[in-house]
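Shipment paperwork, digital attachment
Item: protein structure file
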Amino acid sequence: MKIYIREEHRDLVERALNDASQVATSVVAYPEARSAFARKKREGTLRSEDYDGAVHALDLAWEDFYEMRVSYEIAQTAGNIAERFALRGLDAVHLTTAMRIHSRAGDTRFLAFDQRLVDAARQVMPIYEIH
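Attachment content:
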């Protein structure tokens, strides 16, 4: 979401995306982003035209993302990860997806800004270090 609307750490996300040869995400990232855009619009912190632009940019970028579906196996593993690290359910899905991609593709980095999620990720896979 940070790449589509002006938010703190946008420059770091841009740098991470520029450093990446491929961007991958869980399919649940799409409705999460759309929900966040809509919430900001409702709250008045995102103008209607900026909302429309963010949705359009997300839709265009999504075509280039490697999209990981959420299977029962991923959901089950995410449940274990959520329990182990006291994560929210969808955060655990994102981390589990990244772990799966890393196990298949090798050089995979995880980027997040929620400290609990970052701490969990550091224990199970490489992360994109923010400097």
